[in-house]
Design goal:
Layout: E1 11-17, E2 22-27, E3 31-34, H1 42-45, H2 56-63
Parallel strand pairs: 1-3
Antiparallel strand pairs: 1-2
Length: 71
């Protein structure tokens, strides 16, 4: 493997999200600023909603004879 090709991965990076959450991780940079983290992302918070555009989800469920969980 060539020498000097890859950046140094020895920084303890502080990650700052726009929601105010901060955490530490390893990175090639010393500081990271992100717009979405696991604290505010809809998938991880359980606030994600399934969007049905043109009845595609219903058509798929009917095709494979599946039932959606009602919440």
């Amino acid at each position: 493997m060539k020498e000097g090709l890859h950046p140094e991965y020895n920084h303890d990076a502080m990650v700052h999200c726009v929601c105010g959450n901060s955490f530490q991780t390893g990175s090639t940079k010393k500081e990271l600023k992100v717009e979405v983290c696991s604290n505010c992302h809809p998938f991880y918070t359980g606030k994600q909603k399934m969007l049905d555009t043109g009845g595609r989800v219903e058509k798929f469920m009917k095709k494979f004879n599946l039932k959606m969980d009602e919440k």
